[in-house]
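Pilot study result, target chain (77 residues):
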Amino acid sequence: MPFTQEEANVMASEALAVQWVAAVCMTLLLYDNVITFGQEVSTMWPMKWSIPKVLFLLNRYLVVGMLVFNAIGTGLA
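Predicted structure:
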């Protein structure tokens, strides 16, 4: 079923809005990582390896990696 020009325009503008929201979320997450990096170094790095430390690091860096990978895959970057 082909789309009308108006429907195609609406879908394109909604897709662009989704990309902008994703870019803003990634930017805020990276900004948070930058401004809290000093606290992370002084608090988490000296700790022995434990489940909470591993979960923290996975949550902090795996999520950023996935967002960047997703941005590259969707052509956002």
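One observation from the pilot: The CA atoms of residues 41 and 58 lie 15 Å apart. A full batch analysis is planned for the follow-on phase.
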